[in-house]
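Lab meeting minutes (informal)
Scribe: AK
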Amino acid sequence: MKKRLFLTGSMGWGKSTAIAQALGSTACRGGGFFTRRQLDSSGKLTGFSLESPDGSRGEIFLDFTQEKPVWNLSVFSQLGRDLLTDPDAPFLVLDEIGGVELLCPEFADALEAVFVRGTPCIGVMKGTGPSGALIKALGLDDTYAHSWERLQAFLSSDPDTLLYSCGQFDKHALALACQWVQEYAYDGLFRSV
């Protein structure tokens, strides 16, 4: 199994769910972040937050409660960067990358450093369709599109990365995530169990 596993595909197809299910309680041992949907009492999407795998830290970075969507890049320059640079984390959860965080230089530099260090990572990479939807919904310019294309090209060509294109509720994606967890998220004591 390659050191980095990223699931990609359409929104709502269970990519993040597969990763969370495969990690189970071991997610708390890792660094990085989960992207969480924020819902109001009626179930309507109100935004997205960035949260540490153990749930101890989190901030809303995209707010849909205003007339136009509002994003807060400082969440990535501070909290996001901090979650990527935890020196004690044996692995990182990156759920998800390829969004507005690419417009934050501090976060982009920290993400590049993660790849250079060779830290094991499991996560979701925003696919072509979702990145195009993000450009349209948030009115992003070519800067974002070029950043996304560079990240996509790197992950696609990197010999230490498996970029797996998922189908809806893809059992193979879950199996890959479980295999990755067995290899990288458990230490030697747990591997023999």
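Next up, CB showed the second protein from the same session:
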Amino acid sequence: MAANAKNNRKNHSNQQQTKNKRKLIIFGAELIIIVIMVGVLWWVMDFTEDNKAPHITEKFEPGEVKVPQQVQQQIEQGGAMKGYMNIALFGVDAKNENELYKSSRSDTIMIASINLDTGDIKLVSVLRDTYLNLNQGDDTYKKCNAAYAKGGAQQAVGMLNMNLDMDITQFVTVGYAGLAEVIDGLGGVWIDVSKAELQHINNYQYSILGKYAKTRYNINIDAELNFTPDEYFWDYDMVPVKEPGYQLLDGLQAAAYCRIRYVGNDFERTARQREVIKAIEAQAKQADLATLTKVFESAMDDIYTNLDAATILTDLLPNIAKYRIADEGLFPERDKQEGVNMGANGICQIPNDLAASVSWLHGFLFDDNDYVASDTVKNISDKIIAAASKYRGGN
């Protein structure tokens, strides 16, 4: 574990003062945890000597993140999306704090949709290799996880709204360190590790530790992994997972489990990520106030978000007892996409009919089974099919 890791953190005050790059002290991989932790945050603010206000980045206006006009009008007119809060959750391959903001790909992309009346939460994983339009301005088509690397959270949220007819203006981003810190603070998470997964989980632990794995554990490591990891891992005692089965994983082990990509395909990888989320939820529900407060304080440096306290206090906390993960899904649906080698863009997941998949998404999230995709989505869908047709047969 990393009992002394936080004692070695350097002063991040200069980075924390960077304009438009603020962080709120919450963990973003699970909405139930967010709700519970924000309550703890306000308790900490009210009763601790420091009494420091949370730091947040600016909220996005709908126009800044390409919320389609059709979607805005539907909500204003009391359509099916009214009464939901939709939040983008990004897990990035950030090796340090600066890469939380930009220049790192979002290997995990999820939409968490909260029904504010019922408390039901639906999670949808967006396959990171899905070939989508990253920027309406220059009509750039690539794997969708490149949006975060190119333009940070604002472009990544805009990419989701533009391609999926969503109204997302809020996001939470977490890196390896933030994920590991929360899990360690909760005492670990229970995961059923398969025999096939066991072959890779320890290698991914080493890869997260970067060059420290090479010096501390005397292993060979690829040149691309010769980096200095986040400070949280500087004193981390890496513990190999020795056997398969249902077991308690620490933060580094669980983060490595989320990264496994050689067992099954990306469908299975996103399923592992959601499994860790649900395991975190289970641990958080058993934690007491003191534990959650400690997790809060520990993870504050490794989370980036624009969720503000007022929104959470008004829209989320009043219904805290009702929140639960009601369902989970995958976009594009498994039977409505195919892998195509798109030349310089590599093998991408191509939606066979993006407009139809968007209609399915709105039915899944908002019970709007009659939803018709916007003209923008239909246009994007046509361009994706046309681009893929040039490469089919050459995989």
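CB comment: The first strand starts at residue 84 and ends at 92.
No objections, moving on.
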